User: Fold these one by one.
Assistant:
Number 1:
Amino acid sequence: MELSKHFADISSGAIQVPRTDILPDQEFLSQADDIKEYCNVYKRNMAPFCKHYCASIPFVFEEQCRIGMALLRMARCLPDEQVLTFYETDSPDGTSARTLAELASGKVITLTNGLHTVNRKKFEELCRHPFSYFYLGYFCDITPQLIRTLPNSNVFADGFDVIYENVTFQFYDKDRLEQIAHLKKVMKDDGILICLEKLHQIDAAQYEKREQVKDERYKSLYFSTTELIWKRSKILSDMKVFQVDYETLISSLKQHFSYVYLLWNSTNFYEMAASNSLQKINDFLSFLPLPFIPKEFNFEDDLIAPRRV
């Protein structure tokens, strides 16, 4: 309950507010004009929780826009009568979903769930179009039965084309196999699951080294030392309980999907994409802009191109 209250306070902007704007790197923006546009709309759509999130995970702003840009390009290639359906788990204010749907102008329909009434309030205040929906509750509530009760449920009736698990599983338990199975119930057979998770390291010293890089070289730009200490003691210690390691996540994904790719790494955070459709995963990967992550934050081999694992 205490952790939930802390997240509600962050969502309302009462605590843990970045002291300066989070801006995407110019190197990332220089790839294409449509990336600049996407980042501008994403920044405009940020609510307090998203600002905190982007100030807490090094260069996740750029990565959220990179993923969104790939999905937008995919959607624009669909036949006129088709739309891309997208669900993001436990994303308090739905910034990514709202941005993607806004720029797609009807070619992408999204669903987001959040746990607090302040999340729904911020979502409704900032949503400028009719293509995104919000459910107040847990990701584990999202079942085929529940979807049939939602507004415009016919759009989601056949399942989602893409599901983005955004640092969600670790707040519930360690059973990644079952958690992925739950999401697959509302995903199309040829859909794509993208997972962004904070992972344990087998070597505890390596984990702490990465945390130190994150805090000292990135988060310190946005938060005071007092705020960093408070978060580590009040939030991060609880968040670690249900984290898993890299091999556990990979193994769980491979038991459900034929194709699994590592997309991105930033300190202890990893992002992967998985699908049972070679065509769909290849389409998605082909539309991805180049990633942006400075070497001091990247602890994996070269990830300029996604790596099959």
Number 2:
Amino acid sequence: MAHRIAVIHAMRVAVAPLEEAFQRHWPEAHPHCVLDESLARELAEAGRLTQHITDRIARLARDCRAQGAQAVLFSCSAFGAAIEAARQGMDVPVLKPNEAMLEEALEAGGRIRIMATFEPSLPSMVKELREMAALKGKDLRAEACFVPSALEALESKNPELHDALIAEAARKGAPCDVILLAQFSMARALPAVAKRVEARVLNSPDSAVAKLRGLMAALNGNGRLSPNGRPAAEVKKPS
């Protein structure tokens, strides 16, 4: 049976990269796109996650579940804390856009550069990475890198300039083990970045879809979630 996956976007430029990732890693799935660009505008105007934004994120997740979604994936990394809150009470997986990529990065090395073209994404991602490293007992040196003008280039239908700006920015800074392309819309720049650096380069869509596919396969055997939208531990019956 094909899984119906709700994908909630706050930016139009993130839609195609995720559709392509599903085609690469999970073509049998049925992703359903929900686009609400006013979320990104409201966050940029407020300069922080407000309770109103958090409530909107939770409503979107609940609405998708009510329409039959078997999992919910958000694609904008700036809403991490709101997505965590939205998990509460959900009986299907609710994934933040970057959690799978961050897990991969920490396994690859402790010197990590996070690159973003939407600056409000960086604080929440760095915080999430540090918290994850602490939980795993990993040493971490995180470097945040905002790439100005790249997102505007992509939105102006100049993807070559978008990729070139990111690749040039990736060359700068201290040596690192891993470079993370924070926005889903940055995934297309991975080949250009990989040509300019020796570090491993990861993008969010590929990591997220691969994790989601594995998670849904595991749930097919277990079939249960804990109340916070994560897989419940299997309870073995005594023999």
Number 3:
Amino acid sequence: AQGATVALCGTRVAPLEALAADLGERAFVTPCDLSDGAAVDALPKQAAEAMGGLDILVNNAGITRDNLFMRMSDAEWDAVIAVNLTAAFRLMRASVRGMMKARWGRIVSVTSIVGVTGNPGQGNYAASKAGLIGMSKSLAAEVASRAITVNCVAPGFIETAMTGALNAVQKEKLLGAIPAGRMGAPEEIASAVVYLASDEGAYVTGQTLHVNGGMAMI
């Protein structure tokens, strides 16, 4: 938490409560289904009431419904856009009001290397993550004069349960495309987010920080 009071949001309450227990008394659990528009609209107020204010927003939700373009259903498209992009828009819209009044704020959205490079079978996911980047630039230009920064962090391949399920051949092929020769650690993404949310990042806005081991040099 790096000294911040945090509200942990998501649909799986048990992991959130476990994380809150590790973080201590300055962590609060505020469950939310990001596919539910009304719940998303209410979340910033709930979080602010729990924490005593809201001056940093981190959009870190992401789902996939992969399929080739010609086979992708409307439902697969809509589900990914709703959670990855529309929910972020709603949260940013609601959160920035208080930041404008306070004349200070930080918004950091976790996008993806796929939002810049594209990826076969992930047209919906790529569109949602590219949308986050464009949306963040637009908002950054609107609120910069109020000492509010709006940025993105774009991870490459990170060591997670998903990448851990890859077989040896898949991992070898993947690592061959990464000049650093390894996948990133979740902590390396967290460090990038913390920087952009800190006072040290005050003059950085409308930017996308790529954390991908050189896989895409953008």
